[in-house]
Amino acid sequence: VQVVESGGGMVQPGGSLRLSCAASGFTFSLYAMSWFRQAPGKERGLVADITSSGDSTNYVDSVKGRFTISRDNVKNTVYLQMNSLKPEDTAVYYCRARAPFGIRDYWGQGTQVTVSS
Predict the structure, then answer these.
(1) How is 13-78 classified by DSSP, letter by letter?
(2) Residue 92 contacts residue 111 (beta carbons within 8 Å)
(3) 21: closest CA among 79, 75, 86?
(4) Buried b (16+ CB within 10 A) or exposed e, 60-89
(5) Cα–Cα distance between 14 and 38 in angstroms, integer?
(6) pLDDT for 12-25, tens place per residue?
(7) Do the beta carbons of residue 99 and residue 30 sit within 8 Å?
(8) pLDDT tens-digit profile of 30-67?
């Protein structure tokens, strides 16, 4: 099993980034996918999630209207489009795959996003 995030980097406030999370080794289309983030000295928290079919999404209030989660069940990849980035979005972003009924989770290693002028 592999869950690999990419696309992080440094960007100025107001800029955009698109994170990708490529999965392999399990039946991706059956798993709900989520993005979490963890800033220094803070707990890891949910940013957005998407159902296995992609028909429903959920966002933490602080990113609503700025971030969009999507998935491609052919490419076994989930994305997080981040627009209008703010310094408080600076964190390590993690991808999580959750099996049906929550019986197991797979996590990626994280990708750093830094928003700074």
Answers:
(1) TT--EEEEEEEESS-GGGSEEEEEEE-TTS--EEEEEE-TTSS-EEE-GGGTTTEEEEEETTTTEE
(2) yes
(3) 79
(4) eeebeeebbbebeeeebbbbbebeebeeeb
(5) 20
(6) 999 999 999 999 99
(7) yes
(8) 999 999 999 999 999 999 999 999 999 999 999 999 99
